[in-house]
């Protein structure tokens, strides 16, 4: 039901019963008779293809649909928008306005990208695999990432831990909704509710609380209470990080760009007022770029992208975004790094404290819903992001510094391209001795991702790095709101504890003095066991330790159940996870690179359009895969 709406947007832009709006009718009038003939034929063809959602179950239907959309890319834009909207409505059964808006905003990009793609070859199969899980996932194109120097045989001796810690705050997935209104309808036809525009005030089923709802994005009141609460529990925060996604999930109406930009400007003004104030948080904040920062959502072009040259479409180059972020991040991100930020399409490096380099990566260049990335030939090092990362890491190695990497989407996420994640893993492997920790967001859940040596087994000995995936502030969807505090070794900058805070939103009606923010758990306390032992009070939560925690999860039901409950910040909507769900969840923690995940099928595909292994569509009907498809779609709906 609700969750159907969630499938909303992406499945997609590929994918819809035309209730023509007046504007569309007028556009159609502008076509000749033949064009209308073609349009009707195309619509009939598309109807067949999307019958019973066959494009999500059959690779060949998905490829056929892409062939049609590619042909339409050479025709007037309105034609493509109409057809994509039709496919969206047909398959998504989502509110008409959502399909229409997403297509109106994103079809112009699809129209530029599809003509370059080899639909029957790797490009088309990758798109169908990555987004719809309807084709086997093409094998990673092998690439040995080049490094300026080999890994040192004898690792340089760095300073030893003094057994002291400092405190770092992580905020993620803010998703403020300026239109949130207490008392508005919680149950609506849009992906997010609690807005007056979607409320029939004469007949309200459930009215929104002051502090938020499981169906809705974040109200300002929740954010304010959180920002006021943090300095009460942590008096001495060394710095904060914010791993992306400031705007709401209003993916069908992100334009004009000024609208999305204003939400971000206002947010950063509010953050500055708390972080910069000597009486409030009084510390620095280092942000990363989320997929929702772009308008239209997700679409970060490459320097080589075929961005439309028409003046009315030049916002698609996102120069406005990088410029406005550089201004919003002033004071926290110093001038030199700001120049980096703009030149470097959203990534920068800084030194928050002596001995630590923090690299903020714009990971939207790994995101399967960033259409620009499908332009042929697909780039192995999109916007030179890997070369830049390696340069920064090599510089840190030469200077005997430690490094943190922060970003929005973790490379092990099921929305990150396998190829990107594979190359990224090689880099983590090469510099694992100096990368003390990584921090991500995007999933809204409280999770982690373990990296292993490239081509090595998934064992404690081979575990090399951990990505902390912090919980969202937004309760969307069916989650409690949350944030993280880390205790960090002052010398090695390794994580000594990860403490998650939450508030039980289902009790919002009983909160007299605002949200009941409280510690949900400390990872040290929750997961220390005889199998995953912490010897001293200051021994770090190493990658090997986290691997052993996942072994505990396999062997001990209580440990897994605890982990799983925490993923939703102990939301009462958490469903039981046993059998394949449990197996996949553990497998996915160990998938530092997304190709190692277990929630969809992979297969062998040689890149020339010839499959080496036969594809079994029926396999996609079994429960195992359906879980994967559901999870994928849920995520795709704009997380
Ligand atoms: C705050 O933390 C820093 C380490 O980041 C430490 O040097 C300093 O002494 C602490 N200040 C107080 C008042 O605890
Ligand atoms: C009130 O809303 C419910 C659910 O949306 C609907 O079933 C019902 O018919 C509505 N009642 C009136 C009087 O509109
Ligand atoms: C992985 O483990 C298996 C069995 O434990 C072993 O035979 C194999 O050599 C290992 N592979 C690597 C790359 O270490
Ligand atoms: C971890 O648990 C063990 C018992 O399994 C206990 O002896 C040890 O003190 C604990 N370590 C920490 C740091 O809590
Ligand atoms: C992880 O488990 C292995 C195998 O039981 C053990 O040898 C190793 O010491 C453990 N490491 C940590 C950090 O818990």
TrEMBL record:
The main place the protein resides is secreted
Q: Name one GO molecular function term.
A: hydrolase activity, acting on glycosyl bonds
Where does it localize? Answer: Secreted
Signal peptide coordinates = 1-23
Tell me which Gene Ontology terms the entry assigns under biological process. ceramide biosynthetic process; sphingomyelin catabolic process
Q: Which CDD domains match?
A: MPP_ASMase
Keyword Zinc belongs to the record: yes
Can you list the disulfide-bonded cysteine pairs? Answer: 59-135, 88-99, 188-193, 194-216, 366-416, 577-581
Which of this chain's residues are annotated to bind Zn(2+) 2? Answer: 245, 291, 408, 442
- Kindly list the positions annotated as binding Zn(2+) 1: 173, 175, 245, 444
**Cofactor binding annotation:** Binds 2 Zn(2+) ions per subunit.
Domain named Saposin B-type: which ranges? 55-139
Determine the domain of life of the protein's source.
Eukaryota
Q: Provide the Gene Ontology terms for cellular component.
A: extracellular space; membrane
Cofactor(s) the record lists: Zn(2+)
Keywords for the protein's UniProt record, in alphabetical order: Disulfide bond, Glycoprotein, Glycosidase, Hydrolase, Metal-binding, Secreted, Signal, Zinc
| Family stated for the protein in its record | Belongs to the acid sphingomyelinase family.
Q: What is the stated purpose of this protein?
A: Converts sphingomyelin to ceramide.
Record's protein name: Sphingomyelin phosphodiesterase
This protein's species is: Mucor saturninus
Its lineage opens with: Eukaryota, Fungi, Fungi incertae sedis, Mucoromycota, Mucoromycotina
């Amino acid at each position: 039901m609700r969750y159907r709406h969630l499938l909303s947007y992406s499945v997609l832009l590929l994918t819809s019963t035309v209730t023509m709006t007046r504007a569309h009718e007028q556009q159609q009038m502008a076509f000749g008779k033949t064009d209308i003939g073609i349009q009707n034929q195309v619509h009939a063809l598309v109807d067949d293809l999307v019958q019973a959602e066959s494009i999500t179950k059959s690779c060949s239907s998905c490829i056929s649909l892409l062939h049609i959309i590619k042909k339409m890319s050479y025709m007037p834009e309105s034609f493509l928008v109409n057809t994509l909207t039709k496919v969206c409505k047909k398959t998504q059964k989502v509110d008409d306005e959502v399909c229409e808006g997403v297509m109106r905003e994103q079809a112009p990009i699809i129209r530029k990208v599809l003509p370059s793609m080899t639909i029957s070859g790797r490009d088309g199969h990758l798109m169908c695999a990555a987004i719809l899980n309807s084709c086997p996932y093409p094998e990673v194109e092998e690439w040995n990432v080049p490094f300026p120097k080999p890994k040192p045989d004898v690792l340089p001796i760095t300073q030893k831990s003094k057994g002291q810690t400092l405190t770092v705050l992580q905020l993620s997935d803010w998703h403020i909704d300026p239109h949130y209104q207490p008392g508005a309808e919680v149950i609506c036809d849009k992906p997010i509710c609690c807005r007056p525009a979607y409320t029939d005030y004469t007949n309200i089923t459930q009215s929104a609380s002051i502090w938020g709802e499981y169906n809705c994005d974040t109200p300002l009141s929740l954010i304010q209470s959180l920002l006021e609460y943090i300095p009460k529990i942590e008096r001495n925060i060394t710095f904060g990080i914010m791993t992306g996604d400031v705007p709401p999930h209003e993916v069908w109406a992100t334009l004009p760009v000024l609208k999305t930009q204003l939400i971000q400007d206002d947010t950063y003004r509010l953050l500055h007022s708390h972080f910069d104030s000597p009486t409030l948080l009084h510390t620095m904040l280092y942000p990363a770029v989320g997929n929702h920062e772009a308008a239209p959502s997700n679409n970060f072009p490459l320097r080589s992208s075929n961005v439309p040259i028409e003046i009315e479409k030049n916002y698609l180059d996102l120069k406005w975004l990088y410029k406005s972020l550089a201004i919003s991040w002033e004071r926290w991100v110093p001038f030199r790094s700001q120049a980096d930020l703009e030149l470097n399409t959203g990534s920068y490096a800084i030194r928050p404290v002596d001995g630590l380099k923090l690299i903020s990566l714009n990971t939207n260049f790994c995101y399967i819903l960033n259409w620009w990335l499908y332009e042929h030939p697909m780039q192995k090092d999109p916007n030179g992001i890997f070369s830049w990362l390696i340069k920064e890491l090599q510089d840190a190695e030469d200077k005997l510094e430690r490094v943190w990497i922060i970003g929005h989407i973790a490379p092990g996420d099921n929305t990150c391209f396998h190829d990107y994640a594979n190359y990224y893993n090689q880099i983590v492997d090469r510099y694992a001795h100096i990368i003390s920790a990584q921090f991500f967001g995007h999933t809204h859940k409280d999770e982690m991702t373990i990296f292993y040596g490239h081509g090595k087994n998934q064992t404690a000995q081979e575990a090399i790095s951990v990505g902390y995936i912090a919980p969202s502030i937004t309760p969307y969807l069916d989650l409690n709101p949350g944030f993280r505090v880390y205790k960090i070794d002052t010398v090695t900058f390794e994580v000594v504890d990860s403490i998650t805070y939450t508030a039980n939103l289902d009790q919002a009606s009983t909160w007299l003095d605002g949200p009941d923010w409280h510690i949900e758990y400390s990872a040290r306390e929750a997961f220390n066991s005889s199998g995953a032992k912490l010897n001293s009070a200051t021994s770090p939560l190493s990658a090997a330790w986290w691997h052993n925690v996942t072994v505990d999860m396999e062997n001990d039901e209580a440990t897994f159940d605890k982990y799983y409950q925490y993923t939703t910040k102990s939301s009462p909507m958490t469903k039981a996870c046993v059998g394949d769900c449990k197996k996949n969840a553990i497998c996915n923690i160990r998938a530092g690179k997304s190709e190692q995940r277990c929630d969809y099928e992979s297969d062998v595909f040689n890149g020339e359009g010839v499959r080496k292994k036969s594809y079994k569509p029926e396999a996609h009907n079994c429960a195992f895969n359906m879980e994967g498809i559901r999870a994928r779609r849920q995520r795709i709906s704009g997380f």
